[in-house]
Design a protein that fits this description.
Radius of gyration: 30 Å
Shape: elongated
Number of helices: 15
Distance between the termini: 73 Å
Number of domains: 3
Bound molecules: zinc ion
Length: 492
């Protein structure tokens, strides 16, 4: 039997506000001592009262607007009751039936991938958004002596610095059909949120976290199969690999006529497997009820409209503009707008240098190759837009050849030195002096009479050979265009 894969995602995004969700504690505790960014409110002391952070509500509504959601005119907070040592109050302030945003969608472009059951390559998948709500983050547990076994720690330490950081949860409809689609969706969502500037979206630091619900059903069936929920996927690669693994695990169970158990599973990246964590709590186990310490909120149409007007340019619009304003191909524009920092980098170069295609070729070719090899992001690289533009100008002036430029690029990537300095230090310069080239050309013609004759009898290949000889004698430093011109002139 053939099965259809059904995937829905839950993404948690820590907002980059100055203070926490319900108290005045700073959120800038990264690298600081545990439990030093806390107060009676975020430690859940009896008698302390929460006050909602207006900025966080604004950021959540912005995310909703960017995802085409409807922003609620009436919304409230609820208590979600469960017991876990990383949560000081033994309940979490979250939202239940009246989230800030409902509905919406994100379209993802699946370039070069075939939709199952159709031969055509490249398709668009619309992923529905169920809701976007706001809650508070929990503290952080560190398990000591865990030795890789879940639940096998000797003891655990708890740090409440993170407790109470505003956390947005984005839930998708079960519209995703493949691990590739899931990966592309999460990449696009992260890109949108980075453009909004409401979170640093650092997956490794946990400020952008993804859980997936996966089930299989017989092809053509409308009913959903039993799902498992996979947690702890902290990179795009992990999302894809975990889903591939989980789909295969469920498929084997179903083929063997066994039951898929509804449970939470943990992605173990080191061993490339998902492992059972706990059987899934039913929704009513949380005993949701309206948070009595916070008043419900009314978001006026005017407030929402004003917020809409403050939205920055988002990735889809930016991509379109890159095609129209810079004359780039859709493919190039897609890659250059795939992250905010990449798009910003490109635009800073384009303001200083007016051949967008050349900038794009360098960013996507040589630059990306070095970034991938060193696992760096473009903004972490020592090569700033100033470096790249200076390099392009040196090529334009004929001071260095394209081949030399690649070597110079490698050195500036490693050392951060400006290309002009590297060229000077290494004594690099392309021979663009006609007289100097002419002398070498004469020498080559004298030594390669056979090739000269061959060229005379119509063999164009011979010209390439002669150019090669000149380049060899000049150790690659002659301007190839000039060599070509001078050779042709002499031969005719
Ligand atoms: Zn606090």
């Amino acid at each position: 039997m053939n099965y259809e894969v059904v995937i829905g995602l839950e993404i948690h995004v820590e907002l980059d506000t100055v203070s926490k969700m319900f108290c005045g504690c700073s959120t800038k505790f990264f690298g600081e001592k545990p439990n030093t960014f806390t107060c009676p409110v975020c430690l859940g002391m009896p008698g302390s009262l929460p006050v909602a952070n207006e900025k966080a509500i604004e950021c959540t509504a912005k995310i909703g607007l960017a995802l085409n959601s409807k922003i609620a005119s009436f919304t409230k907070f609820d208590r979600k009751n469960y017991f876990y040592p990383d949560m000081p109050k033994d309940y979490q302030i979250s939202q239940y039936d009246l989230p800030i945003c409902e509905g919406g969608y994100v379209d993802i472009e699946m370039e070069g991938l075939a939709l199952e059951g159709s031969g055509s390559r490249g398709y668009t998948r619309r992923v529905g958004i169920t809701r976007v709500h706001l809650e508070e983050d929990t503290g952080k547990l560190t398990h000591i002596g865990e030795s890789g076994r879940i639940g096998g720690a000797d003891y655990s330490l708890v740090d409440f610095n993170r407790a109470g950081v505003p956390l947005v949860e984005i839930v998708t409809e079960p519209d995703i059909r493949t691990p590739d689609e899931a990966k592309i969706f999460v990449q696009k969502l992260k890109n949108i949120i980075e453009h909004l500037g409401v979170s640093d979206c650092d997956m490794e630091e946990g400020s952008f976290r993804c859980d997936a619900n996966i089930s299989l059903r017989p092809m053509g069936s409308k009913e959903l199969g039993t799902k498992s929920e996979v947690k702890n996927m902290n990179s795009f690669r992990a999302i894809q690999r975990a889903l591939v693994y989980e789909i295969e695990r469920q498929r084997e169970l179903l083929r063997a006529d066994e039951r898929v158990i509804q449970e939470t599973r943990h992605w173990d990246a080191a061993n490339n497997v998902t492992m059972s964590l706990r059987s899934k709590e039913e929704a009513h186990d949380y005993r949701y009820f309206p948070e009595p310490d916070l008043v419900p909120m009314e978001l006026s149409g005017e407030w929402i409209e004003d917020l809409k007007n403050t939205l920055p340019e988002l990735p889809d619009a930016r991509k379109k503009r890159f095609v129209e304003a810079y004359g780039l191909s859709v493919y190039d524009a897609e890659l250059l707008t795939s992250s905010k920092t990449m798009g910003d980098y490109f635009e800073e170069c384009a303001r200083a240098y007016n051949d967008a295609k050349k900038i794009s070729n360098w960013i996507m070719g040589e630059f990306s190759m070095h970034l991938n090899a060193t696992n760096l992001k473009i903004e972490e690289s020592a090569v700033t837009p100033k470096h790249l533009v200076q390099l392009l100008r040196l090529i334009d002036k004929g001071q260095i050849s394209g081949k030399m430029a690649k070597d110079v690029f490698k050195e500036m990537f490693e050392s951060g030195k400006l290309p002009k300095i590297i060229v000077e230090e290494r004594g690099l310069s392309q021979i663009s002096d006609e007289d100097a080239i002419e002398k070498i050309v004469d020498m080559v013609l004298e030594e390669n009479k056979k090739a000269v004759e061959e060229y005379g009898s119509g063999k164009d290949r011979a010209l390439g050979f002669l150019v090669g000889q000149v380049m060899r004698l000049t150790k690659g430093s002659a301007n190839p265009q000039l060599v070509n011109e001078i050779l042709r002139k002499k031969l005719t």
